[in-house]
Structures are given as structure tokens and as C-alpha cells.
Amino acid sequence: MKKIIALILTCMLALALFACGGEKPTPTGNTPTQSDPGTNGGGAAQTEIYFAPKGVRMEIGAPPAPALEALKAAIGEPLSELPCKSCALKAMDTDYNYDGFTVTVTYPEQGDDYITTIKLSNDKYTIPGSITIGSAAEDVFAAYGTDYRENNGHYYYTKGPAVLHIYIANGKVAQIAFENAEFIEM
């Protein structure tokens, strides 16, 4: 029952914070790779936008199959898989929910599958720059600089088709998401 409640709350939060919109993104074609399993993404350059739980590198727009297989080996099966019709495309989306993060994959009617969003749900994992939920706002700015767009505490760092979206409330990181730039309004 607790897992169901947590899953429902995660979905509600995701819908409230990251609404759908935009047109079909252009996938980057980057393929996830296995990197140092000990870093959880904390040891990489902050100029890149990616997430690497247990060393499994994932990027927005990348094919999902290699990452999902590597995650299965590193972490295990997802806690749940929630398929739904895409609200922005002629496609199906599936949320793969793990302890600490969710990966959304888009399966278009035509074209290649790709990773659409990655959302962290607790402080179990860090992103490059050693930032996690609960980190101080100053640590975000020290790690990522001031080349961002800001809207009511939402900070958007963009590189290519990927956006690192960090929400800061009361001086602390409250939410972290990796998103496709074409799906969000900044």
C-alpha cells in the first residue's frame, strides 16, 4: 500500500510540476554507457547534462534500451512500469519507476524510442556537481554557474536538446529533473 501511495504522489507531483506541451523532440542519438559505478553521476563535468545512477549514464533523447538493460543489471527491475498515451505526441510513454528516480521513455508510432525525462524523487542519487535534493542553492550555482533561465525558483540549464531543471525552495534543492527542451516552457 505504501508503494502505491508513493507512486500516486510521485505521478501527481510530476504532472503538477512538469506539464506536457510542445512538439516531437529530435533525439540526440547518444547511447547510454556504463561509467564508474561509484560516482552516481557526481564525478563528471558540469558542462554535460546527464544522470548516471550506479554508473549507468542516461541522456535525454538517447535510445532507452541500453540504459534500461544496464539499470536492470546495476539496480534491478523497476518498482513499477506505467504506460500511458503521450499528451504531446502520437506515441505511448512509459514511466519506469525506481527507488529515487523515474525514467520516462517515449515510444512513437513512427521513429525511434527515446528517453524523454528523468526525475529524481529523493536524495538517494546525486547529479554531476554532487548536487542532490536538499543541496544548498549556493552549491548549485557553484557547480553549474549562472548561465540559466529562472522562473519562480525554477532554474533551467540548457545544453542541446537537454535541460537540467532544478527547483529551489527556501534556499534548498527541492526537485531535480532532466527534460527535453522542446517539451518545457521556461
Major beta sheet, strand line-up: 1-2-3-4-8-7-6-5
How many structural domains are formed by the residues?
1
CATH architecture group name: Sandwich
Average pLDDT reading = 79
Q: What's the total number of strands?
A: 8
CATH topology: protein yfey like fold
Question: What does this protein look like?
Answer:
The chain has helices spanning 2-17, 64-74, 137-144; strands at residues 80-85, 91-98, 101-108, 114-120, 149-151, 154-159, 162-169, 172-180. The chain is α+β, with helices and mostly antiparallel strands. It has one domain (2-183): protein yfey like fold. An eight-stranded antiparallel β-sheet has the order 1-2-3-4-8-7-6-5, with helices on one face.
Write the layout of secondary structure elements.
Layout: H1 2-17, H2 64-74, E1 80-85, E2 91-98, E3 101-108, E4 114-120, H3 137-144, E5 149-151, E6 154-159, E7 162-169, E8 172-180
In short:
With 186 residues, this protein is an alpha+beta fold. Helices cover 19% and strands 30% of the residues. The chain contains three helices and eight strands, in the order ααββββαββββ.
Keywords:
3 helices; protein yfey like fold; 186 residues; alpha+beta; eight-stranded antiparallel β-sheet
